[in-house]
Amino acid sequence: MTIVTLVRAELRRLTSSKMGILALIALMCVPIIYAGLYLWGNNDPYGNLKDVPVGLVVEDTGAKQTDADGTASTVNYGDEVRDELLKDNSVKWIEATSAEAKTGVSDGTFDFVLTLGKDFSTDLTSPTTTSPKQASVELTTNDTNSFLATTIAGNVAEKVRSSIAEKVGKEAALKFLDGFADVGTSLETAIDGANQLADGTTTAANGSAQLAAGAASANDGAQQLATGASQANTGASDLSTGLQQLANATSTLPADTEALNTGAQQVAAGNAELATTGATYAAQANTIATDLPQTKAKLTDQVAKLVQDKVITQQQADELLAALDPIGQQVVDANTKIQDLNGKLAALASGSQQVADGTATLAASAPTLAGGISDASAGASTLADGTQQLADGSATLAAGTPALASGAADLQTGILKLDDGAHKLSTGLTEGLGKLPIETAAQREKSASVISDPAAINTSAVTKASTYGAGMAPFFISLAAWIGIYALFLIIKPLSKRALTALRKPGRVTAAGLMTPGILGAVQMIAVFGIVTLALGYQVANPLGMLGFMIVTSVTYAAIILALNVWLGSVGQFLGLVLMVLQLVTAGGTFPWQTLPGPLAALHHALPMGYAVDGIRQLMYGGNLALAWADVAVLLAFMLGALALSWIGARRMTRTRTLRDLRPSLIG
């Protein structure tokens, strides 16, 4: 008998009676019903949140506030928020009293309740008072209504809070900017007055100077001469003393600068040598890091040869190579630090050389500087003697008419100070006006909007599922494939024992044992694919690739359950159910598998459904085809491994039979 004959015989057995046909059709429809109903029921739950009943309680009594122009007004943010929420269709908002809301959230009339208290507006406007207080939005939930409803409630409350914060923040910012605009207008008026004052004081200063000159031009000149001569004498004496001290202090300057230059040159030479050495070491370190991959490859080859020669085991080789990875990383990190240090040494050498060049220039100029200071000291002494004689003569001249000159000088000094102050006032007011954010009304409105909501989230997706149901489809399809194959093995015989006894060809019988459920599983997957794409209308980026992957997944599951049945019979069939439950948890179809506890996360990589879910996602959403091919490779490995186990079991049956082989199966 050929494989086709064996498959045809099994199909004839399954369809030999009306009840058999009905059973086969019913079991074939199991994955279609499972995947279709689950995906239909969960197609777009977030799009139907508008039907979720939510109680809205508004007890706000409003608050009084003062506008920018000083006008008192009343505001009620609670009513404004209520009006905006009732226009929003994100959930089904239902107005209620506090008592109705309390009863409704308990008996399931409301999934949750949002309450704005009586002091809501008062608290929101409190930042402009001396007693600011944070406003609160009360959220009442009840997990007996729905746990996910509580999660939705948190998202809705956060959305309301953000909307309130943006609205109130915009109004506060607008008041702030309007206040600046009013201050700017007042400053412009003040600037005009300050400019007029400055113009008047300038005219007064000019007039006072003319008055002093006309009243006693000679006396004024004498007073100025006496004052200037006295100041010049004092300055000349101070200059002479200072220059003498400077000459004494700089007498040792040439020797000091020469010593400084010698030290700087030594430091520069040392740093240059250090930089050269650092560059050598850096080059060596870079060579080591560059050759590291090649060295690691050679070492890997040597270890592989040791494994091949059975000097060490593969596990020992893996542990040895794993222990080398941190060393390689340490070498790379050390090279990075050495290269950074080499750059700093080069910069240090360059900087110290610049310092050495500067000290050399200073040492060369030091003798000339010291000589010039000594000559200046002698000249200052002679100048002091001359200014003393001039001061004595001008004092005698000024003593003749002090009263008139003194009065005119005092008047002029006062008016000049007033003029200086008026100009400083005008300048300061002008600069202050330029620093104020004075804008037009439209600009202030736009600025207030940005201040109240300064950041926006721009989301981009590499791939994207069209709906929630499309997002869950890979998981439900993979699970439906397992359920479908598991159900088929309730009526399909894993292996034909008559064929094993008659033919004694375990390979042919094993292939026939896989082909029957494989063909039926492929039909199931084609039907599920039609439900997903046609009935539910989900978009598939790679339809042929996804359909082929689904068929490979179904055949892989058939090979696994076949092996379990061949070796363990009814117990193996039961283990197929256990494996389905385990994969239901570990496949990562709902939450990311990384959120699983450690042992379950390890099972994610050890069981085939996780790879099936990932492969369908890649092909359905237009993801990475290389990852999809990797998933295919893993599934084929599972398939071939299961087939090999089935062949070994079939081969055993051709030689010996156990009591378990002779007992009737509990299933089928």
TrEMBL record:
It is a multi-pass membrane protein. Residues 425-648 form the ABC-2 type transporter transmembrane domain. Keywords: Membrane, Transmembrane, Transmembrane helix. It is found in: Membrane. GO terms for molecular function: ABC-type transporter activity. Gene3D superfamilies: Methyl-accepting chemotaxis protein (1.10.287.950). One of its GO terms (cellular component) is membrane. The keyword Transmembrane applies. InterPro entries: ABC2_TM, Phage_infect_YhgE_C, Phage_infect_YhgE_N, T7SS_ABC-Transporter, xxxLxxG_rpt. This is Putative membrane protein.
